[in-house]
Amino acid sequence: MSGPTRSPTLADVADAAGVSLSTASLAFSGNKPVSDATRQRVLGAAESLGYTGPNPLARNLRQGRSGVVGIAVGQLSTAFRDPAALPMLDAVSEVLGAAGLGLLLMGDEDDHARLPLDAVIYDICGRETWAAYDAFVARGIPLVVVEGPTWPGTTFVDIDHRGGSAALARHLHDLGHRRVAVLTLEPSHPQRQREAGLRDVFPDAVVIGACASDHGAAQQLASDWFDSSPDATVLVCQSDVQAAAVVVEARRRGLSVPGDLSVAGFDGVPTPWLDLELTTIAQPLGDKGRAVARAALARIEGDDVEDVLLPVTLRVGSSTGPA
């Protein structure tokens, strides 16, 4: 009875291909020029021997890397409830996975400072302080920040919040609206920029409250506002989840949208529980995630990376009409 067979090594591949061990290694890594003929000979030898390639964990350790990128997403219990967050996370994981890197989701209450990470993505909407920031900077860990804050030493990936909100406001102004109310996000870079864009057109817009992109919280604020007998003809929300909650509450009270009240949102996410399409500002969620991941990869390699500002698009639905 024969004993267990030995797994093929890179040295076996090099011998079979008739090249040096270093040439075989370069053929797999692609870090330095190797002729196509030599690369194909090495890959052919590897296939015939059943060799699948160098161990990525060992390679990362030799390079002083963990092969893992962390992403701070706030409360893990609620991280997957925001429909605007999921497409971006999918795109980030797709790009990092193709590069052989893993993605570690981190809650805002965890101690991240000592984690062996190759880079960190900060995506806690509404949070502008983070205890781990100074520690990561001190360790030289590359940081990519999504939609603020603009911390020193980080790469900033953002969307045109202000320009998008101004475009939405001009659309509402063209419909004849002059009495405007706004439901904002909690204090943050996106909240300030979206409100500033609205006030570029409607400087006297009345803020009715602030909450996260949460259906229950937004519906309660809308309910309190309706109880105050408002005279606004349109309520602009800073997320589509908020806007959907306002539509639900309006209808619960027998109000017509947009007949009695126009409602607009921001994000461009699906709202399949509504029988109307929201007027909103659609942001490129997948493109944003890919830009974030590419910036993280470039920072890992030591490259200088410029900040990124992505455009947004006005999408007119059936939730807004003439004042």
From TrEMBL:
Keyword Transcription regulation among UniProt keywords: yes
Cross-referenced SMART domains: HTH_LACI
Keywords: DNA-binding, Transcription, Transcription regulation
InterPro entries: HTH_LacI, LacI/GalR-like_sensor, Lambda_DNA-bd_dom_sf, Peripla_BP_I
Molecular function per GO: DNA-binding transcription factor activity; transcription cis-regulatory region binding
Residues of the HTH lacI-type domain: 8-63
Presence of keyword Transcription regulation: yes
Record-linked Pfam families: LacI, Peripla_BP_3
PANTHER family, per the entry: LACI-RELATED TRANSCRIPTIONAL REPRESSOR, TRANSCRIPTIONAL REGULATORY PROTEIN
Protein name: LacI family transcriptional regulator
Organism of origin: Nocardioides currus
